[in-house]
UniProtKB/TrEMBL annotation:
Keyword S-adenosyl-L-methionine: yes
Descriptive protein name: Release factor glutamine methyltransferase
Entries under PROSITE patterns matching the protein: N6_MTASE
Catalytic activity, EC: 2.1.1.297
Similarity annotation: Belongs to the protein N5-glutamine methyltransferase family. PrmC subfamily.
InterPro entries linked to this entry: DNA_methylase_N6_adenine_CS, HemK-like, N5-glutamine_MTase, PrmC_N, RF_methyltr_PrmC, SAM-dependent_MTases_sf, Small_mtfrase_dom
First-level EC class: transferase
Catalytic activity: L-glutaminyl-[peptide chain release factor] + S-adenosyl-L-methionine = N(5)-methyl-L-glutaminyl-[peptide chain release factor] + S-adenosyl-L-homocysteine + H(+)
GO biological process: methylation
Role noted for this protein: Methylates the class 1 translation termination release factors RF1/PrfA and RF2/PrfB on the glutamine residue of the universally conserved GGQ motif.
Keyword flag Transferase: yes
PANTHER family: HEMK METHYLTRANSFERASE, MTRF1L RELEASE FACTOR GLUTAMINE METHYLTRANSFERASE
Length: 287
């Protein structure tokens, strides 16, 4: 990476231009990446960049920015560099222990909120990671009794940090291998965004997923192992008329719908994401 000799004199506009030129070849969101990283280094809001394009960076800010741009050039996700990602308009702390929340998962939250559930419904989020789904639901339905579980200890700690930061103390967060910590409990709604990518998928060699743990991304049986396990076991933990709602890969919908029907779920249906891909499938359990 070339380092400008007039480093200390760089202003905001020049710094952005430089970062864009560095990132253009490796990131398809180079402009946005440059802005988000610079804002993080300056600790300012977005309008600041446009209002003060000629404001010079301090040497310290410039050095920090250069280091971050270099890491981004190597592929490190912007969310990991700034330690945060917005989901459902809420700021989530993120780190390399779990998945970075995706905009497509907001469709699962929206679908859950549209279900005809009572004010104090019992809800379980399996494999919560950052806590994104559970905490987004809590932000909209403060009386829902929400439990979020994750098998990975560091993910549980991260979800708890987000719970504290967003101030939803009513959400219960437990370390659990799928249903193991809620063995004797039943729910009105069980949601999950489990690992569902095939272990040999070439998508795993590209972009942000290279920096996310495989435990949050991949599953055996062409990505279906965890989806099937949850669908099968959830039947023992759903109240009569309860719903199961699962995120999945865009090519997994037909097989998953068939599986849910075969397992005895009713009203099986799939919802598409913002890119028009089949993304979430739900079914209802009547025992
Ligand atoms: N949708 C994510 C991706 O394809 C994967 C999420 C998951 O495995 N649960 O990058």
């Amino acid at each position: 990476m070339s380092v400008q000799s007039s480093a200390a004199q760089s202003n905001i506009a020049e710094a952005l231009q430089w970062a864009f030129s560095q990132l253009a070849a490796t990131s398809d969101s180079a402009h946005l990446d440059a802005e988000v990283l610079l804002l993080h280094c300056l600790n300012k809001s977005r309008s600041f960049l446009y209002t003060w394009p000629e404001k010079p960076l301090t040497l310290e800010q410039w050095k920090r920015f250069q280091k971050m741009v270099q890491k981004r050039q190597q592929g490190v996700p912007v969310a990991h560099l700034v330690g945060e990602r917005e989901f459902w308009s809420l700021p989530f702390i993120v780190n390399e222990t779990t998945l970075i929340p995706r905009p497509d998962t907001e469709i699962l939250v929206e679908t859950a909120l549209n279900l005809p559930l009572s004010d104090n419904a019992k809800v379980l989020d399996l494999g919560t990671g950052t806590g994104a789904i559970a905490l987004a639901l809590a932000s909209e339905r403060p009386k829902w009794q929400i439990t979020a579980i994750d098998k990975v200890e560091d993910a549980v700690a991260l979800a708890k940090a987000n719970r504290a930061n967003l101030n939803f103390p009513q959400v219960e967060i437990l370390q659990s291998d799928w249903f193991s910590a809620v063995e004797s409990r039943d729910f009105d709604l069980i949601v999950s965004n489990p690992p569902y990518i095939d272990e040999t998928d070439e998508h795993l060699m590209q972009g942000d997923v290279r920096f996310e743990p495989h435990s949050a991304l991949t599953a055996a049986e062409e990505g279906f192992a965890d989806l099937y396990h949850i669908a099968q076991t959830a039947r023992e933990h759903l109240l009569i008329g309860g719903y199961l709602l699962l995120e999945h890969g865009f090519e997994q919908a037909v097989q998953l719908r068939n599986k849910l029907t075969e397992l005895g779920y009713h009203n099986v249906a799939t919802v598409r994401d913002f890119g028009s891909n089949e993304r979430c499938t739900l079914g209802r359990w009547f025992g």
